[in-house]
Amino acid sequence: MSYIQVTSQDHIATLVIDRPKALNALNSEVLAELESAIDALDLGDVRVLVITGAGDKSFVAGADIGEMSTLTRAEGEAFGKKGNDVFRKIETLPIPVIAAVNGFALGGGNELAMSCDIRICSDNAVFGQTETGLGITPGFGGTQRLARLVSPGMAKQLLYTAKNIKADEALRIGLVNAVYPQAELLPAALKLAAQIAANAPIAVRASKRAVNVGLEQPMDEAIVTEEKLFGSCFETEDQRAGMANFLEKDKSKKLKVVPYQGR
Ligand code: CO8
Question: Alpha helices of the chain — where are they, by DSSP H?
Fold first, then answer.
C-alpha cells in the first residue's frame, strides 16, 4: 500500500494514514487503501485498532479538494457514499477503534475521527467541518455523527459557520476525551489500547455492540439488546476465569482472553 501503513503488536494494530504532501487528505486511492486495510485486519488477533496520521501536523486535512473540485452531482454523491461506506465499516468494526488525532482533523478528517469509538488528540489538533465554506455539506457522516456526539446546537454552529476549533475547545464540547502534548499522544493511545486489550475480548466487543446498537433503538428495545449481549458473555472461558479470579482473591491471575473467531 502507498498511503496506509498497519503495524501490529500485542493485539493492538496501529493504522497510519500517510500522505504527508497533502496533509494526509483522503483521495479515492487513500479511501480504497483504508478500506482494504480495515478488511485485512486479523480480528482473531487484533483487539484494538489505533488510527493516526503521519507526521506531527495533520491527522487528516479532509477529503481531497482537488479531486472533488470537478465532480458532477452524481459523482459527488458516489464519492460521499464511498467515504460513508468505509467510515461505517470502521464504526461497526467489532473491536474498539481509537483515533489519535495528531493535528488537523478537518472535514473528512473530523468525520473519520468521529467514526472511531474514542478520540484523543494532541495539543496542536484543530477540528472543523469546513465544508459550507467550500460550497458543500459534510459528506462522510459529519452532519449525523457530530450532532450525536456534541449537542445538536453546537454541531449546527460548527456546520453553519465552518469555523475551526482548537484542542481545548474540542475537549470542552466532548468531541475528544483527552488532550496530550504531541510526543505523548501515541504512547497515550497505545496505553489506552493496552488497557482495553487486557480485558475479555468477547465482553469488550459485546459492550461496543450494546452501545452502538442500543443508541439507535428506543430504550425498551435497547435494554433487550443489552440483556442478550450480557447473556452471551456467560459460559465463556473469560467469564468463568474472570469471576473465579475475583472469588479466589487472586489478583495475579489474568484473564485467558479467548481469541475471537471470525470477524
Ligand atoms: N485536499 C487536498 N489537498 C490538501 C488538503 C485537502 N483537503 N488540505 C491540504 N492540502 C494540501 C495543500 O493543497 C498543500 O499542497 P501543496 O503543497 O501542493 O500546495 C499541502 O496540503 C499543504 O497544505 P497548506 O500549504 O495549505 O498548509 P497550511 O499549513 O498553510 O494549511 C490547512 C493547513 C489549514 C489544513 C489547509 O491546508 C487547509 O485549509 N486545508 C483544507 C482543509 C479542509 O477544508 N478540509 C475539508 C475538505 S472538504 C471535506 O473533507 C468534505 C468531506 C466530505 C466529502 C463528501 C464528498 C462529496
Answer: 28-40, 65-68, 73-91, 108-114, 142-149, 152-161, 167-172, 182-197, 201-215, 219-233, 237-247
